[in-house]
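Same chain as my last thread, 186 residues:
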Amino acid sequence: MRTAGFVLVGGLSTRMGRDKARLPFASGLLVESIAKKVKQAAGSVCLVGGGARYRDLAIDSIDDLRPRCGPLAGIEAALDTKRAEFNLIVACDMPDLSSSWLEQLLAEAQDRGSKWLISRDPAGVLHPLCGVWRSDSIGSVTEALNESRLRLLELVRDVDADVLTCQQPLANVNTPDEWNCWQLTR
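reply #2:
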């Protein structure tokens, strides 16, 4: 079965005060590291939500179909590309991601035939922006957007998404303090 990988980069990063995707990470940028892991797991990678802002990175990118409608709009844009049946979709602000976890998510989604499979961290927190979304789930995503139901966790609960628990941390870094704390723990 075909798989495709996507990294959501369309947010405004208002809490961070600067573009989270462009945070310095290892020998490059956070988004480059995540994109590399996604590509390794899915065989391809595309940045979603900030096409022109990331052209300098030489990574395929597309714009959201509905700018400023949050991560759900990024998921819709990714699914609308019709690149694959199983779409690995992750946020650009998850520095702990490993390609082995992403590969496991894809394999599990295919084995289960999941329409939606999202990550849960060891503390029980759901991470819908680290998951696999089947292409035929676009109808539910579009319907939610059309009805202005933009809360991703609510949609995930409404559709009764499958969940897979990761044994490693899955932190999002949304503020300078979270970024600094994350760096101190590494």
